[in-house]
Amino acid sequence: MKTPHIPPAVWFAAAATTQHAVTRRRPTTLRSRIVSSALASAALALGANSIREFARLHTTIHPHKTEQSSALVTDGVHQITRNPMYVALAGGLVAQAVARRSLVALVPAAAFVAVMNATQIPAEEHGLTATFGPEYERYCATVPRWITPGSVARFAR
Asked: What's one GO-annotated cellular component (predicted)?
């Protein structure tokens, strides 16, 4: 029997709800709000750039329908990470942990990344390999799943 697939948005909502539950009594400070706002803004820009690239190439952003992909998106932020939308969601969770000044609130963010790495991303990679073959494999060989210092340095050149 096949297990039901849980969409990334549900995992994100669960992580955000958990963060809220463990930090609701932790007040923010001006400094934590400023730093958190900068992180959240960067995450939002990353996600928006990714969606714009998908729209520009007229391909699906639906994570469960990789067979409907009509183009391999490799421009813009996709030059530094293969998963900018997931990085953006994780960045939003980290921003919330920073706002609340809570190391415990980083646990749901880390859990979100771990679940995406264990379930969603491998399924997408399998589908995209089936659709785009060697072109996607070359892309995977040069661009990491998540943002790394090396990928940012390479993009900045």
From this structure: endomembrane system
Global pTM value: 0.91
Indicate the domain borders of the chain: 26-156
The pLDDT tens digits along the chain (157 residues) read: 455 688 999 999 999 999 999 999 999 999 999 999 999 999 999 999 999 999 999 998 887 777 788 999 999 999 999 999 999 999 999 999 999 999 999 999 999 999 999 999 999 999 999 999 999 999 999 999 999 887 777 666 6
* CA 47 to mean position of chain CA atoms: 8
Work out the angle at residue 72's Cα, subtended by the Cα atoms of residues 47 and 126, and round it to the nearest 5 degrees. 95
Backbone angles phi, psi at 75, to 5 degrees: -95, 175
Distance of CA 107 to the CA centre of its chain: 16
